[in-house]
Each structure stands twice: as structure tokens, then as C-alpha cells.
Amino acid sequence: MNYLAHFLLAAPQARARVGQMLGDFHKGAVDALADPVWRREVQLHRAIDRYTDTHPRVLAVRGELSAPLRRYGGIVLDVYFDHCLARDWTRWCAQPLSEFVAEVHAALLADYAQLPPRMRGSIDYLISTQLLLAYREFSGVARALTGIASRLRRPSPLPQAAVELRTLDASLNAAFVEFFPQLQEFVNEWRNTHSL
């Protein structure tokens, strides 16, 4: 899952949301993090990624991507699932998306000085482009994938992925609607067995 889903699946506190994003930037041992909330959320972030990457429904829909895109299927589906989440937000969260995003931005800025430089750069981009809100529109997906491609070491088909994703929208959205409640249940069960 990508940023928006991770923020939504975080515990409903500011530091937990920061910890979920930190999961993309802290690659070492979780014990190296001093904050217990961050440790737990980075562990959960990793568990969410493993669950998603091995889920049969996600694997099946990944197989629908063309061969050039399939290699980047994890990235493509993470971004597109955030699009599915954002455009049908009221189905998944009672709080308006704009309020939720404002809270996430405030949490990230509150801990900004303590975060790794690469993460601070991503926070700057996330806020300046209003990426989480932009996911509601298809153009936000295209922009996100182009941005990711610019950070990769090798050329990739990600900037051209938007055309293919538009044709697969019904199938991808159906996969998300089936998968996301199962992911939410997984997260609830994980929290029940990994309390602070």
C-alpha cells in the first residue's frame, strides 16, 4: 500500500501516522528507533507490505498488467490502490479526506526535524503537491508514478502506466474493494497481538 492507505491504517494518533511513513525510510532494525510508537508502526508497516505483496487477489490483479509494467506491479498497484481509496473515501472513513490530510500534514511537520533527510524531502513533496488529495483524480496517479520514475536509477515504464491503468480501472477497483477490508481485518488482528 502507498502513503494514504498507510496513514489510514495507522493508529489514530499523530506519531503513529509519522511512524507509518517512516516505514518506507527506516530500513534498519526496528529496535534502533527510540520511540515505541514509531517502532510499532514501522513493524506494522512492514507487515502490511508483506500481507499486500502476497495476497492472492493482489497477485491476481498484478498479473493483469502488461509484461513491462508487471515488473513494477507492486509500485503501480500501491499508487492505484491509493487512488481507489481516495476517490471513494467516504466508504472507508467517516472523517472528510481534506481534514484527514490536514491532520497528517500537521503530524509530519511536528516531527519533521527528527526525521531522516530523504523522508523530509518526501514530506516536502507530499505537502507542496497536495499528493494525498490529488489521488482522488486520475491525473494524481499519473503525476505520482512519473515522480517515482524520476527517482529510480533506471528508465521505467511508469510514466506511461496511466494509459494502461485507465483501461484496467474496473478490474483494479474491484480487486481493491475485495482486498482492503481483509487488510483492515489483518491490521486489527495484528494490533491485538502487538500492543505497546
Automatic annotation (TrEMBL):
Keywords: Fatty acid biosynthesis, Fatty acid metabolism, Hydrolase, Lipid biosynthesis, Lipid metabolism
Protein name per its UniProtKB record: Acyl carrier protein phosphodiesterase
Molecular-function annotations in GO: [acyl-carrier-protein] phosphodiesterase activity
Gene Ontology biological process terms from the UniProt entry: fatty acid biosynthetic process
UniProt xrefs under PANTHER family: ACYL CARRIER PROTEIN PHOSPHODIESTERASE
Pfam families listed in its UniProt record: ACP_PD (PF04336)
